[in-house]
TrEMBL record:
It comes from the Bacteria. Its EC number is 4.2.1.113. Mg(2+) binds at D189, E214, D239. GO terms for molecular function: O-succinylbenzoate synthase activity. This is o-succinylbenzoate synthase. Its cofactor is a divalent metal cation. It comes from Sporosarcina siberiensis. The gene is menC.
Length: 369
């Protein structure tokens, strides 16, 4: 396939509910969608999961736009590409900027699958026909309200509940949740809010039988996480610290992590995500698919990835209605009794809903060969 044309849409959508982490609250979701077109007029879609500000990682919507316009698009436009695995070699001269790279690579994967009349899941080697879904719940300062929110999602059938924690909002909140939901698979995500000085506090979480604690320590750390894991029972799962297969190998060798949260954008695309999946499978490390409050385009990629066999734990791939009044794909992503049925249409398996997309598009940028 030859990449003839690329269109970027700057998007602005408002989430139904604000989402609070240890870093702050988000309700406006600004992001990029990217469409690639080949010589036959087939198209593929990708999403940049970077946020407006660099709280989760150093990338932002504007740094992604800069990388795409000035470096990444010029490296693929007009190029003949046999397989999406080649995209990472085309980008080899560019360091990091994984979310920006993943935006283009994801669109090329979708295009490749459509050209070959396959689902993206099959193109990746995934087999599952339905996937288990968990949900990530933001910080609620009022614990009674949190309990009711969790109850609603448990009743909807979500297979695992993840709550955000931060210093001052941790042990007692988890205790209350465990008291109310003794058997629900429960986990906590700290988004790097603690340090090794908090070992005694983190140890107290051991009594609640959490499936895991996600990224308790610094976002660039694997050394202290290894030290922490030696002192706590709860399995550590790394999110922010893992950007590549190499990071994965090192973290596993050091004993910094027992589970990996794979986010396609964070690791630079589906090809790297699949490598991490395969490596973890060989090493007995279960993985699950994280979320970045994506629109339906990004979620569709997450769903396809989750069909690979080592995605043993439920992911943060909640349905469209968890986030949006109206999503940008059709049909929307539906979670039924805690499962998503993997779509059978070619490529990402959902059609862009152009009418909805236009409503949320702030600007469109077009690049031709
Ligand atoms: O740390 O997993 C995270 C959302 C934004 C940034 C980081 C994270 C999250 C979530 C929500 O936990 C995942 C989702 O529902 O998409
Ligand atoms: Mg996380």
């Amino acid at each position: 396939m030859i990449i003839k044309e690329i269109t970027i849409r700057k998007m602005k959508m408002t989430m139904k509910n604000p989402f609070t982490t240890s870093f702050g609250t988000l309700q406006e979701r600004d992001f990029l969608l990217l469409e690639v077109m080949d010589e036959d007029g087939n198209t593929g879609w990708g999403e940049s999961v970077a946020f407006r500000s660099p709280w989760y990682s150093e990338e932002t919507l504007e740094t992604n736009l800069h990388m795409l316009k000035d470096f990444l698009i010029p490296l693929v436009i007009g190029k003949e590409i046999g397989h999406p695995d080649e995209v990472s070699s085309l980008f080899a001269s560019i360091r990091k900027n994984n979310m920006a790279k993943s935006t283009v690579e994801g669109a090329i994967w979708d295009l490749y699958a459509k050209r070959n009349k396959m689902t993206l899941a099959h193109a990746l080697g995934g087999q599952a026909e339905k996937i288990e879904v968990g949900i990530s719940i933001g910080i609620h300062e009022n614990t009674a309200e949190l309990v009711e929110t969790v109850r609603g999602f448990v009743e909807e059938g979500y297979k695992r509940i993840k709550v955000k924690i931060k210093p001052g909002y941790d042990v007692e909140v988890i205790r209350e949740l465990r008291k109310n939901f003794p058997d629900v698979p429960l986990m906590a995500d700290a988004n790097s809010a603690y340090t090794l000085e908090d070992v005694q506090l983190l140890k107290q979480l051991d009594e609640f039988n959490l499936t895991m604690i996600e990224q308790p320590l610094a976002s660039d750390d694997i050394i202290d996480h290894a030290a922490l894991q030696k002192q706590i029972e709860t399995p550590i799962c790394l999110d922010e610290s893992i950007h590549s297969l190499e990071d994965t190998r090192k973290a596993i060798e050091l004993g910094s992590t027992k589970i990996i949260n794979i986010k396609i954008g964070r690791v630079g695309g589906l090809t790297e995500a699949k490598k991490i999946h395969d490596y973890c499978m060989t090493h007995g490390i279960p993985v699950w698919c994280g979320g970045m409050l994506e629109s339906g385009i990004g979620r569709a990629h997450n769903i396809a990835l989750t069909t690979l066999p080592n995605f043993i734990l439920p992911g943060d791939t909640a349905g469209s209605s968890r986030y949006w009044e109206e999503d940008v794909i059709t049909p929307e992503v539906v979670v039924e009794d805690g499962y998503i049925t993997v779509p059978s249409a070619y490529g990402i398996g959902y059609e862009p809903n152009l009418e909805a997309m236009d409503k949320f598009t702030v600007e469109e940028l077009n690049y031709k060969e």
